[in-house]
Protein backbone atom coordinates (compact mmCIF):
# COMPACT_ATOMS: atom_id res chain seq x y z
CA UNK A 1 0.00 0.00 0.00
CA UNK A 2 1.36 3.40 -0.93
CA UNK A 3 -0.20 6.00 1.35
CA UNK A 4 0.32 9.60 2.42
CA UNK A 5 0.92 10.92 5.94
CA UNK A 6 -2.45 9.55 7.08
CA UNK A 7 -0.84 6.10 6.93
CA UNK A 8 1.45 7.06 9.79
CA UNK A 9 -1.47 6.80 12.18
CA UNK A 10 -0.93 3.71 14.32
CA UNK A 11 -4.42 2.29 13.74
CA UNK A 12 -4.13 2.49 9.95
CA UNK A 13 -0.63 0.96 9.91
CA UNK A 14 -1.76 -1.88 12.20
CA UNK A 15 -4.77 -2.63 9.97
CA UNK A 16 -2.55 -2.89 6.90
CA UNK A 17 -0.11 -5.22 8.67
CA UNK A 18 -2.85 -7.38 10.23
CA UNK A 19 -4.23 -8.07 6.77
CA UNK A 20 -0.82 -9.19 5.52
CA UNK A 21 0.07 -6.01 3.68
CA UNK A 22 3.17 -3.89 3.53
CA UNK A 23 3.15 -0.16 3.19
CA UNK A 24 5.30 2.55 1.74
CA UNK A 25 5.53 6.03 3.23
CA UNK A 26 7.32 9.10 1.93
CA UNK A 27 9.68 10.64 4.47
CA UNK A 28 9.69 14.43 4.56
CA UNK A 29 11.59 17.11 6.43
CA UNK A 30 8.78 17.77 8.93
CA UNK A 31 10.03 14.68 10.83
CA UNK A 32 13.68 15.79 11.20
CA UNK A 33 15.03 12.83 13.23
CA UNK A 34 13.42 10.27 10.92
CA UNK A 35 14.41 12.23 7.81
CA UNK A 36 18.07 12.38 8.88
CA UNK A 37 18.15 8.69 9.89
CA UNK A 38 16.73 7.65 6.52
CA UNK A 39 19.05 10.01 4.66
CA UNK A 40 22.08 8.49 6.39
CA UNK A 41 20.86 4.92 5.85
CA UNK A 42 20.30 5.55 2.14
CA UNK A 43 23.54 7.51 1.59
CA UNK A 44 25.47 4.48 0.22
CA UNK A 45 22.68 3.76 -2.28
CA UNK A 46 22.41 7.39 -3.33
CA UNK A 47 26.15 7.43 -4.08
CA UNK A 48 25.76 4.75 -6.77
CA UNK A 49 25.34 5.81 -10.41
CA UNK A 50 21.79 6.49 -11.55
CA UNK A 51 20.11 3.80 -13.60
CA UNK A 52 16.70 3.00 -15.07
CA UNK A 53 15.81 0.82 -12.06
CA UNK A 54 16.17 3.66 -9.54
CA UNK A 55 15.22 6.78 -11.49
CA UNK A 56 12.31 8.08 -13.50
CA UNK A 57 12.07 11.11 -15.76
CA UNK A 58 8.73 12.70 -16.48
CA UNK A 59 7.94 15.60 -18.80
CA UNK A 60 4.72 17.42 -17.96
CA UNK A 61 3.39 20.92 -17.49
CA UNK A 62 6.37 22.43 -19.32
CA UNK A 63 9.03 20.93 -17.09
CA UNK A 64 11.04 17.76 -16.63
CA UNK A 65 10.95 16.07 -13.22
CA UNK A 66 13.51 13.48 -12.21
CA UNK A 67 12.86 11.19 -9.24
CA UNK A 68 15.26 8.76 -7.65
CA UNK A 69 13.88 5.79 -5.71
CA UNK A 70 15.53 3.56 -3.14
CA UNK A 71 13.77 1.07 -0.88
CA UNK A 72 14.82 -0.32 2.47
CA UNK A 73 13.13 -2.25 5.23
CA UNK A 74 12.04 -0.20 8.25
CA UNK A 75 13.87 -2.73 10.42
CA UNK A 76 17.14 -1.14 9.33
CA UNK A 77 16.15 1.92 11.39
CA UNK A 78 14.54 0.07 14.30
CA UNK A 79 17.47 0.55 16.68
CA UNK A 80 17.15 4.32 16.30
CA UNK A 81 13.38 4.23 16.85
CA UNK A 82 12.72 1.53 19.51
CA UNK A 83 9.08 2.60 19.93
CA UNK A 84 8.32 1.25 16.43
CA UNK A 85 6.50 -2.07 16.44
Using brief descriptors, characterize the structure shown.
alpha+beta, two-stranded antiparallel sheet
| Strand element count | 2
Q: Report helical residue fraction.
A: 25-40%
In angstroms, what separates the terminal alpha carbons? 18 Å
Question: Main sheet?
Answer: 2 strands, antiparallel
**What string gives the helices and strands in order?**
HHEE
Give unreliable regions as ranges.
none
Q: Could you give the order of strands across the largest sheet?
A: 1-2
Structural class: alpha+beta
Q: What fraction strand?
A: 5-15%
Write down the overall mean pLDDT.
82
Shape by Cα distribution: globular
How large is the radius of gyration? 15 Å
Protein name: ISAs1 family transposase
InterPro entries: ISAs1_transpos, Transposase_11-like
Description:
The protein has helices spanning 10-18, 32-46; strands at 55-60, 63-68. It has one domain (5-80). It is built from 2 helices and 2 strands. The protein is α+β, with helices and mostly antiparallel strands and 85 residues long.
Layout of secondary structure:
Layout: H1 10-18, H2 32-46, E1 55-60, E2 63-68
Antiparallel strand pairs: 1-2
Brief characterization of the structure:
This protein has about 80 residues and is of the alpha+beta class.
Amino acid sequence: VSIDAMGCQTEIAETILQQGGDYLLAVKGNQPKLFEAVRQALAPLAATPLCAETMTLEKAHGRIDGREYHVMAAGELAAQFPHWK
